[in-house]
Amino acid sequence: MLRLAAQSATGTLHRALAPGNAFILQPDPDARAPAPEGKNVLPYALRGMAVKDNITTLSTPTTCASKTLETYRSPFEAGVLEQLRSCMGTVVGKTNLDEFGMGSHSTNSAFGPVTNTTPFERISVGGSSGGSAIAVATLQCDMALGTDTGGSVRLPAAYTGVTGFKPSYGRISRWGVVPYANSMDTVGILAPSATSVMSVFRCAIEPDPRDPTSLTGETRSRIRQSITKSRKRERARRKRLGQWESEDDDTKFMNVRIGIPVEYNIEELDHGVRSIWKDALEIFQVNGATLVPISLPNTKHALSAYYVLAPAEAASNLSKYDGVRYGSRAEGWREGTGHVLYSNTRGYGFGEEVKRRILLGSYTLSSEARDNYFLKAQKVRRLVQRDFDRVFAVPNPLLPTQHFDLSDLDESTPMMDKLGPPQVDFIVCPTAPTAAPSLQYVATQNSVDTYMNDVFTVPASLAGLPAISVPFSISRQHKRRDHPNYTGIQIIGQFGDDQRVITIAEKLEAFRDARNLFRTPALQQFAVKNGVLDELRKLYLGEKENLAPGIGPRIEKILLDRKYHPVSDQNRQPWSEYASELTPEIRHVQTYGPRESRKPRTDKEISRDLKAALEIWEQIKTSENNDP
Amino acid sequence: MARFAPAVLQRYLFGGQLLVRGCLRHMRHAPQTAPSLYSQRYHTTQIENTSSANAPDITIPFRKQLKDEAKQRKADEIGKKPKRDNQRLDNWELTVGIEIHAQLNTERKLFSPATSTINDAPNTHVALFDVAIPGSQPTFQKETLIPAVRAALALNCHINKTSRFDRKHYFHWDQPTGYQITQYYEPFAKDGYVTLYAQDGLAREDGEKIQIGIKQIQMEQDTAKTMSQPGDVHLLDFNRVGLPLIEIITLPEIHHPSTAAALVRKVQTILGAVDACVLGMQSGGLRADVNVSVRRRDAVGGHEYGGVHGLGQRTEIKNLSSFKAVEDAIIAERDRQIDALEAGEVIEGETRGWTIGSTETKRLRGKEGEVDYRYMPDPDLAPVVIGDDLIDHLKETMGVLPDQEIETLVEQYGLTAKDAMSLISLNDGGRAEYFYNTVESYLRNNPDEDMSKVGRLCGNWVLHEMGGLSHLDASEENPLNFTEAGRCLITTGKLAHLLDLLGKSKITGRTAKKVLNEVFESALRKVDETPQEIIDRLGLWFQPLSDQEYDELAKSVLDIDIVNQILAGKIGKINFLVGQMMRKDADGRVDAQQATAVLQRLIEEYRTN
Predict the structure, then answer these.
(1) ipTM value for the complex
(2) Is A128 in the active site?
């Protein structure tokens, strides 16, 4: 059933009534395929998909949030949707976005901006997949598809507190994805947790012959082999050097090397963001990973290269919207600039940001500017990719073996041994330099400043690498007034290493949740009462050796066990939601709101938190008793 | 009846132009002036300046001068050429580069599996990508490489192992995506050449043979077909959009208009011969753009095109759709540029148009109106990698190119280049096939005969004698019903048999022609009759004259005056008498040697008497 959400003032645009203006159209918000669970289908709790409105669907128009396509109906369905629907997914709505995916705050939509939920109405949700992100965060769908060209999935995920994944370029079919910049466009997944991302990802990665950039089955198996082989080689090498530890505990990050790009510690980095970056790294280190500072020297040029390449491709891709074969056509073409047939149509149909990027792209491709901009930017793109290939232990499976000369490296690059700098499995950095900014602040920025938000997401896009944004909470002392206290930590892996990136994110999320649990005042109160505060503190600090024998691992094991996990699939909640229940400092706005400042917590809240903590403690104790 | 203003009438009568208004509007697309054959021939060829041969200060009788001039003209085989132009061409050098767009002979479009058609109902063969439906993507149809690589090989090009597709941006309603996918940065073939021979219609100045370099060949998409209707309505047929084309870009190495036309014609022949393109210029499968520049022979221009330096400013004439248009447009543009330069003007780099039958090129747009195509590598399309195995396979299966075949026909079969050209161009190669079979079966009966002699004999009969056959019951176009495979009404066996009889002097040449006609007519009546049977039936076997008959015939032509002349020493006059004897004998049975002998004997008798 098709339900038009609302009509715009002019009577032509469909406006969504749903909270947050997340949807352009909701055909059937509650539809879920009830068929049984199975091996190759989506879990029931993930079947309601919200789909960004630049991915074509048959049942509804596909508008790309543009006036050009305001009534456009696609004659075919996107390849990724075919796959997900065959896995029991149902489209519950088409979500709002920045027109054609161009923007970082989901405000450039012909259907009005996407707004954040109470009390953050004045805060950006990020873009361009802001509608998809907020729909997941506010439980209006089970999971959502977005598109990520330069961070359009990861950024809104970080700003709304959900998990957002951008796969390797070519992993998920782009057939039916209206292109913005084809060489970087990917279909991304937004979900409450990395575990859900994995379930969706598994159902969406069939090769699609209709997409010429979709990796073929042959290439995929070659990539798989290449990764397995190089991991084996790395393992043998480390064993020889005596650097290999047992991998008995697969919940931990044993033998994982995490790279910390020193260039990402930029001046503009928010204190709060820097502290959660530290938090995340601490979790990795405490749980067995090796932290390694690495150098990605060309990152500083990546953003400029992106904003040359993406508009160039956009200008090219968007030249098809001329109103001749489909889409809206403006009246009175004869009066258009230069009496050109399309000038009025294109002037009428496109929004300001789209026009800006078309002009920018047309200029950088023009014969006078091409050498200085477009070709230079392509070279930078190569350098960025080379930077990544140099630091990853797994070589790029798409390229022949590359040799990196030590003399090319920056002097400050730390060396691992005489062979060169250390090589890592993953790179961990913030998703964005700040937490979600206020829209008011965004409005005062010029467009170049706005582009700054993408500084950490763009490099992975240029290199086509898989990257995931995991939400983290900013501690009380760094939280900004009226702003949400969460943002994202990004994990980047080598090309084709998608599954491992998601798996690492799953583990990170589990440890993050456990850590948040330990931080709960209620749990601490409980611990004081029971005289185990000291043990808890040691556990929290990772002083495992000082812990009473057996207790630490057991506590952690229980906390990590899917059965007792606070975000088990059966009882799923967006992380931001449950986090606010358990840890009031994260999202209890009324506490920090301008009027009701520092209102003491009610008894009801305290007792609820206490109850949750008690339950967990009970589980820990039971498991201890069950131990032989 | 409508009345025309005198001015209009005058223009119509003298210029062949008619002012069109109102309901006659649609005629606009027809040529506005009737092409004058005379004026065009007048332009098509240039003669070398031969004035130095006739030094002007020596007095020559007027009659002799006229005679010599006529001889010279005949030798040059051309019409006349105004002196003014000759002198100008002494001072100016023309340089032409050509871009030829040819439709590849493929089943599918370049980037979609939609089938390629010529005459189907509009918009019936269109895939999503062809009309740029949002979210659709191109799928390169690798089968299109086969004719493309064949064409490149036939044009002696180097095949690039890796080539890429680029987008060339411009807005037009016949281009749905807003860009044409072409190969700008890395084409699939480059550095080839075409060899042109005199028989290809080369300008005389270029001599017997010339090589024109090919800079590159690229694959690209065709546009949609626009059907303009009255009232500013344009209908679009997307069947054609996305069909694969190759663009062949020559180096600016052509200096004569007729050579340019010969090049385009030759390229069409070659592409047809290797089955790369099926449609010729006449059906719109081939279009040409020409770049024209001139420079003073004693000066160096400041421009460089395709690596050739020192050229003058060039202009481009787009969309020429016939060989004649290529030649005429170049002449008109050359003359315009020389006029402009001599008047002290400057040539602008601009795009010009040409209408068939006109005498001038028309400015379409100048440099300021040029589209910046904003070339960009297509991010959806992977590079095309062509393997050596494909190239080798196509090389092996390509067959013989026309030039090679002509060479064989000339060198081994003893034909003239002209006859060889006619042979292979007639009946889609069927005539040549027929020729080979005839030679073969003739040689079977006469294995010792010289190949080139047999070739010349058979060539003469297959081409000229058989070419002259016609009959009311036969089709006008192809009276012998020649097929591509080399079959026709007269089997090669019958022709070879007939030639064999002729060669062995069993019949005379005149009889052979008669018998050939009989064989043709009986085949038309579907009667199977061998040459032998026909000769038997008509009693045409060659019977040599008896000595007595020779004597009688010789006596009848003897003239006392001539005999006296011969006796006085003018021995050559005897041939005149032999000729008389042959003319008198209607059946052609007179043998020249015997006749001479008889005549000599009789004349000797006179002397002794």
Answers:
(1) 0.81
(2) yes
